[in-house]
Design goal:
The complex is a heterodimer of chains A (293) and B (289). Chain A is mainly alpha-helical. Chain A has a domain of 102 residues: Tetratricopeptide repeat domain (Serine Threonine Protein Phosphatase 5, Tetratricopeptide repeat, Alpha Horseshoe). Chain A has 17 helices and no strands. In chain A, helix 2 runs antiparallel to helix 3. By secondary structure, chain B is mostly helical. Chain B folds into two domains: 145 residues, Alpha Horseshoe (Serine Threonine Protein Phosphatase 5, Tetratricopeptide repeat), CATH 1.25.40.10; 123 residues, Tetratricopeptide repeat domain (Serine Threonine Protein Phosphatase 5, Tetratricopeptide repeat). Helix content of chain B is 81%, strand content 0%. The radius of gyration of chain B is 26 Å and the shape is elongated. Classes of the chains: A mainly alpha (293), B mainly alpha (289). Chains A and B meet through helix 2, helix 8 and helix 16 of A and loops of B.
Chain lengths: 293, 289
């Protein structure tokens, strides 16, 4: 059967789902098998457009047969083909639908994976949508208490934010990773996440926010005793002193080199603004404090 | 041994007899398949690989008559594994048929796996051109099934063979792509410098100093930690040696790197090509003076 012409299989399947004088109810069981065979035939023949349509219909068929797992699988196949065809909006829709179907059968992990696949496919073409998918994928895992499985998703979302030059959002996502890592005692990931956030703020030349972030994170015992804390402390001190050479030296350190490569890239470009201005501000404040008049 | 052989022949005769007789609703094919399976197992135990292979092919045709494509494909695979011991071409042909059957029933990941096996057979036979073709097909199938790790393994093989066949740009593209992917994975990011070194060596083989310099800049942009590695140092120093047309410097640089991180045969082969070209250039210069 599978070796038959997939177009004929599709036509036959469509016929079995259409109601007529002789057919009073759709025969989804037979039709779904035919759609699956047709999809496979089209795919092997590299006719991706028709394969995508066939998988979509096969998914619908499995749904009608109350088999959400198989429906989700077919929907993912359709999404993968839509990606090859560069039909980006369909990629979003199909992966979202696949995720919903996985959730329907109580499987949050594959539901999150489906959204993550969609996000990865859309990083270059629809970055905003990719971020939304990553965020939703993280939320699914957080709701299920599987924060550890979401670490790579937090990082990926941060990378997209950085690419879009939305540094505040990127830092927020890193802090969210820190929080998730805290919940599952992943100290190393937690400390790296906090240092990542501080580097991002410094790259955005928001020294005040970087310092605030450092102070907040230092409330956490694990971070307070870490190499990442010492590195952040030295980096902020170098900023306060307006010492460009020291900033560059710290940016080359091994602690920084072990961060995510996107963050390392940012760190190597520090300082991004005029740090002597920060020093001047500091000196003014010191004078004000001693001024008794 | 002889005992198993005669047992196998006995089962085979019974199976043939079943096929030539009458059977109800295809049951004769089921019975024959069962007997062929037993016969093939006996031949395997007797280490009579050709007979075992031929019997598995008969088993496959029984399964096809019964419309059991999955079992037929598996029988072809079993036949291939038997022929592997004696007749590589026959083994490849069986695996090829298995791949087609797996494609028919939508088991693309299985098809990919056996395409890779065909490539490995050709590689073992030193047939690099065919190995490259099949590794490429396998990578394509794995990629479609989103089995990225296996896809990358096959792609690396493609890159390796492409470079051996002097298709340097193809090799460079693959290594750079794998490096780019690996950067986003915390487990794989430490292997990036290796991929970039491979890409860099292929760049050196193209003998375009400007392209090499541009590539090194691009690699630093890709992975900021790369510029601090010995791999980067090696590529930069070789590029300088090529620019200066200094064979002695080239040799020293490679020797120093090799003393700490021994170069594998693939890298050695490519670097020797670079050295030969450099020597030829130096001789040309001498002729002109």
């Amino acid at each position: 059967m599978a070796a038959s012409d997939p177009n004929k299989l599709m036509a036959k399947a469509d016929k079995q789902t259409r109601l007529s004088l002789t057919r009073w109810s759709a025969d989804w069981k037979s039709a779904t098998v035919l759609y699956e065979q047709a999809a496979n035939g089209f795919r092997v023949a590299k006719d991706y457009e028709n394969a995508k349509i066939a998988y979509e219909k096969a998914s619908k068929g499995q749904e009608m047969l109350s088999s959400p797992w198989d429906a989700a699988k077919h929907m993912e196949s359709a999404a993968a083909l839509a990606k090859d065809l560069r039909h980006w909006q369909e990629v979003v829709d199909f992966y979202r639908r696949a995720s919903e179907l996985y959730m329907e059968c109580g499987r949050p992990q594959p539901a999150s994976d489906a959204l993550a696949k969609g996000a990865r496919a859309l990083e270059d073409s629809m970055s905003e949508e990719a971020i939304q998918l990553y965020t939703d994928a993280c939320t699914i895992l957080e709701d299920d208490g599987r924060e550890q499985m979401a670490f790579d998703l937090y990082r990926a979302a941060t990378n997209v934010y950085i690419k879009l030059e939305k540094y505040t959002d990127a830092a927020s996502f890193m802090l969210r990773l820190g929080l998730a890592a805290d919940k599952c005692n992943a100290t190393n990931s937690q400390c790296k996440a906090y240092l990542n956030a501080i580097v991002i703020y410094l790259y955005a030349h928001d020294f005040i926010q970087a310092e605030k972030c450092y102070n907040d994170c230092s409330q956490i015992d694990a971070f307070l005793r870490s190499d990442q804390n010492r590195c952040a402390s030295k980096l902020l001190a170098a900023y306060r002193d307006g010492d460009v050479e020291e900033i560059k030296r710290i940016a080359q350190s091994s602690v920084i080199s072990h961060l995510d490569h996107v963050i390392v890239k940012l760190a190597r470009k520090l300082p991004t603004g005029d740090v002597s201005a920060l020093k001047a501000e500091d000196e003014e404040e010191a004078l004000d404090e001693n001024d008794l008049t | 041994m002889a005992d198993q052989l005669s047992k196998g022949e006995e089962f085979e005769k019974k199976a043939e007899k079943k096929l030539s007789g009458w059977g109800l609703f295809g049951s004769k094919y089921e019975d024959a398949a069962d007997l062929f399976d037993k016969a093939a197992n006996c031949f395997k135990l007797a280490k009579s690989w050709d007979k075992a292979g031929a019997t598995y092919l008969k088993l496959a045709s029984c399964h096809l008559k019964l419309e059991s494509k999955h079992e037929a494909a598996q029988a072809h695979v079993d036949a291939a594994h038997c022929y592997k011991k004696t007749n590589i071409n026959e083994s490849v042909s069986c695996l090829d048929r298995a791949v087609n059957l797996f494609c028919d029933i939508g088991r693309l990941s299985m098809a990919a796996r056996y395409l890779k096996e065909i490539a490995e057979l050709y590689e073992g036979e030193q047939n690099i051109e065919q190995a490259l073709v099949y590794y490429e097909k396998s990578a394509d199938f794995f990629q479609n099934e989103e089995v990225t790790t296996s896809a990358n393994q096959c792609k690396q093989k493609v890159a390796q063979f492409a470079a051996q066949l002097e298709q340097y740009q193809k090799s460079i593209d693959i290594y750079e792509e794998i490096a780019r992917q690996s950067l986003n994975n915390n487990l794989l990011k430490y292997g990036v410098k290796g991929h970039l070194l491979n890409a860099g060596i292929c760049q050196l083989c193209k003998e375009d100093v400007v392209a090499i310099t541009n590539a090194l800049e691009r690699y630093q942009e890709l992975d900021p930690t790369f510029s601090g590695t010995r791999e980067y140092r090696l590529l930069a120093d070789i590029a300088a040696a090529i620019d200066e047309e200094d064979v002695a410097k080239f040799t020293d640089v490679v020797k120093e790197f090799d003393s700490m991180t021994p170069l594998d045969s693939w890298k050695t082969t490519l670097l020797l090509r670079v050295k030969e070209k450099l020597k030829a250039k130096e001789l040309e210069e001498d002729d002109l003076t």
